[in-house]
Every structure is written in C-alpha cells, then in structure tokens.
C-alpha cells in the first residue's frame, strides 16, 4: 500500500499499521511511549529510517543512520509491481557535500576545475551510501541465480552533474567503492521531474527541496535528505544551486 501522506507535525508512527494491513510479516518493532525511537535504530541494524518528522530525521542522521523526510503526493504515479526502483541524487546523498562546498565558496568555474583536478580521487561517502550498499548486496543474490537482466531491484543515479565535466568523478567514486548503479542519468542542471516521470521510481532521495517538490508534482514519493552545506545556505535564505545549471 502507499505510505501515509505526511502533514506538518505528523509522525509516521502509523506506518506500521499500514504494513500490518498489507499482511507483511513483521517481527521487530518498538513502542517507545512517545520517546524518540532513534536510540534503538542501530541496535535494530536499521538500514534506512523514513519519517514525516524532520527533527527525528536530523537526529537519525547525526547518529549515523541513513534517513530522510518522506513526502507522498496526493496523486501517485503508477509504478512497477515486479521491480523495486530506487532513485538517488548524488552530492550530499550518496556522496559527501565536498563538491557543493567548492561551488558555494568559489563559483561554478572553480567547481569544474576542482572536479577535473580530482577526477581520480573518490568523493567521501554521503548519508545514503550504506543504503545503496544494502540494495547492492540484495541484487547480487539475484545475480548469483542468473537473474541479472530481470532483477527485481533496480537503482538509478539522477544527478544535475554533467557527464563530461563532472560526471566522471561520480562514476569513478562508485567504482572505487565496489558499488554498481544500474542507470546513471546526468542532467547538466535540467529539472529532474520529467526524468523521474519516465523512470517511475518507487522512491527518490534528494538533498534539495526544489527537486523533492518537482518529483512530487510528477507523482513520485520523494524524500528529503537534510545533509550538507546546501541546508545551511537554505536556512540563511540563500538560493538553491538548482536555480543555475550546477552540480547535484
């Protein structure tokens, strides 16, 4: 079933009810009596924490847990029933915000120079790298059974980086981690919404609300990852970098 649509101030505590109604077998859960559940996440070996409560998401990220604030559109796009499709932004999601810091401090030209000079140096990991690793391990179990071409899990990198100037470093970083991404889409600053409409992922992760909102307009369940320098700039009232053709 579709996850509950978040409203301001509403937590996703009822999500478990939806899962039970879907007749999914769930053995592990916790009832915290109104206290934060974040302290239990590592003990539960949590790979991903989703909530409509941004404060809980911040708390989870600070604890080193992959986490995001989830938004569900009123009208959801029809998605595959045989293949789970997960789409990720690059910088400040799978990767660190190192490159964004260069752009914010020195501008677009310096960013391109920096990426070219460091093309063969992997980026540091971002908050959702571990979640991609878990998906990759599941995929390899199907590959071992000869199901590479019809694997029920498919991953996408949807980034505003351009293929020629900065995309190479992103791909080399994934390769250095021993991770595969099924499809990498370099948009060179173009809006992500139309591409997501074509992919029809079950869930999409981005650190910019600009793209989260664009995905929701296309009927995609989108999750905001509040990580990196862009969040600090946004809180100060600065413009998102997506207003110009830059990296993401």
From TrEMBL:
PANTHER family: CYTOSOLIC 5'-NUCLEOTIDASE 1 FAMILY MEMBER, CYTOSOLIC 5'-NUCLEOTIDASE 1A. This is 5'-nucleotidase, cytosolic IAb. InterPro entries: 5-nucleotidase. GO terms for cellular component: cytosol. It holds the Pfam family 5-nucleotidase. It comes from Oryzias melastigma. One of its GO terms (molecular function) is nucleotide binding. GO terms for biological process: adenosine metabolic process; nucleotide metabolic process.
